[in-house]
Design brief:
This protein is mainly alpha-helical. 71% of the residues lie in helices and 1% in strands. It contains 18 helices and 2 strands. It has a two-stranded antiparallel ribbon. Helix 14 packs antiparallel against helix 15. The longest helix is centred in the middle third of the chain and has 28 residues. The radius of gyration is 20 Å and the shape is globular. The N terminus is likely disordered.
Length: 339
């Protein structure tokens, strides 16, 4: 098994990606196997559990976390039999966080249709989220690896801390860029990081490979969330499947707002801070226009680009195959996504 090119170099370089390669198509057969695991492990004697879980899991989305685990496995030429189980595990953990997030945020729309809490109520959403967490841990036990358990248990704990951190910073108009990055690296990027690291752990890859894949996942997840926050102000609501300006409605000072507050004039800055702290968004369209015209979105995209480059640098010395090319394409395509 060839994990990496000879003389694995700890250097930074600019990688030429292959943007025409479709990462999701590359792992299509593997994802079908993951879907079979998901369908099997969603079974429950309580009908509502399966009904709510299947509702949100079937609601679309790119399933980037399981895709990332499978791409990373391919990049290091690993066909470990547990890779499909762990890909399903990370999807269950992610889905559980979505169920809980939508309750906390009082969201009504996700991926173009009603959220689970809107359809089934808050109590059912929270409890089925708990079911998915516990089912994920049952599946981890099946893998029979304490290292796998440690990585996923730690990731789940960090994600929960990230959720609480975000809650603490709600209505905080003074949130710094550093604190924002700490939140999203806990809340979002940690599961990306765990997904790519697990591929190396299953394959018992050398430590430099494990760290390279881990860094790639963390940087990719950070870039993904920044772009997600940018699209909240410049995307198309129909394409996004959610309402524009939701973050502002909820009092979240995401990176586009943090950057805008640095460049806006005094009047604009005061209006944005008032909207965040007091929830006064009667003229939401006008506030979004301030963000769009301030240069804050471009600045946030630039920071996302730096994270995407960090992801590319991390895997620059992996063996060159279709999977590493797809991982490079995935990092660059994040920067131009519209949904």
């Amino acid at each position: 098994m060839r994990f990496y090119n000879a003389h694995f170099a700890q250097t930074t370089r600019t990688v030429s990606p292959t943007p025409t390669l479709d990462p999701i198509a590359l792992v299509h057969a593997d994802m079908q196997a993951v879907d079979r695991v998901i369908d099997e492990r969603l079974s429950s004697e309580v009908p509502l559990v399966g009904q709510v879980a299947r509702y949100i899991i079937s609601s679309g989305g790119k399933r980037l976390r399981p895709v990332l685990l499978l791409l990373a496995s391919g990049a290091i030429e690993s066909n470990h039999p547990h890779r499909h189980t762990l890909a399903a595990v990370v999807e269950f953990i992610h889905t559980a966080t979505l169920l809980h997030d939508d309750v906390v945020d009082e969201s009504t729309l996700r991926r173009g249709r009603s959220t689970a809490n809107e359809m089934f109520g808050n109590a059912a959403s929270v409890l089925v989220g708990d079911f998915l967490y516990s089912r994920a841990f049952q599946m981890m036990v099946d893998v029979n690896s304490m290292r796998v358990m440690q990585i996923l248990a730690d990731a789940t704990n960090v994600i929960a801390e990230g959720e609480v951190l975000q809650l603490m910073h709600m209505r905080d108009a003074e949130l710094s860029e550093a604190d924002y990055l700490r939140v999203i690296r806990s809340k979002t990027a940690k599961l990306f990081e765990a997904s790519s690291r697990l591929a190396a752990v299953l394959a018992q890859a050398p430590a430099p490979i494990e760290e390279a894949l881990s860094t790639y996942g963390q940087a990719l997840g950070t870039a993904f969330q920044i772009i997600d926050d940018v699209l909240d102000y410049e995307g198309n609501a129909d394409e996004l499947g959610k309402n524009l300006g939701d973050d502002l409605r909820e009092g979240k000072a995401t990176l586009p707002i943090i950057c805008t507050l640095q460049t806006a004039n005094d009047s604009q800055r005061a209006r944005l801070k008032q909207a965040i702290t007091a929830g006064e968004i009667d003229s939401l369209a006008e506030l979004i226009a301030i963000i769009q015209n301030s240069g804050g979105l471009a600045q946030a995209r630039e920071i996302a680009g730096q994270e995407a480059q960090r992801a590319l640098d991390a895997i620059a010395d992996l063996a060159d195959n279709a999977y590493t090319q797809a991982m490079r394409a995935l990092a660059t395509s994040l920067l131009t996504r519209r949904s």
